[in-house]
Design goal:
By secondary structure, the protein is mostly helical. Helices cover about 85% and strands about 0% of the residues.
Length: about 100
């Protein structure tokens, strides 16, 4: 029973961590979207779509920043925030997947 309790505790900790990480990514995407609405003049739905595609590293190329500051910001944000966040997300997913199944 101690082993079962420890296993259950690990599952709860991992799921809480995944929930926190998903919340942080969502908040990050919304804050970035609000910033881009103010700086680019795009509609909120276009900016939210752009942020989702950029965060997912899909990069369809249908919406492209026009000025160099927005483009440089998108590149630096990908290198400094999004790629490390995706690595952590993948690591969390790999650790949580066996607990869920």
């Amino acid at each position: 029973t101690t082993e079962t309790a420890n296993s259950r505790q690990r599952q709860l900790v991992m799921l809480k961590g995944l929930l926190v990480l998903a919340s942080v990514l969502l908040i990050h995407m919304v804050v970035a979207a609000v910033y881009r609405v103010c700086t680019t003049g795009w509609s909120f739905s276009d900016v939210l779509y752009f942020e989702f595609v950029r965060t997912a590293s899909v990069g369809f190329g249908d919406i492209i920043p026009e000025d160099e500051f927005t483009l440089a910001g998108a590149i630096l944000k990908n290198l400094l925030i999004n790629i490390p966040a995706q690595i952590v997300t993948f690591a969390m997913f790999v650790r949580v997947l066996p607990l869920i199944s």
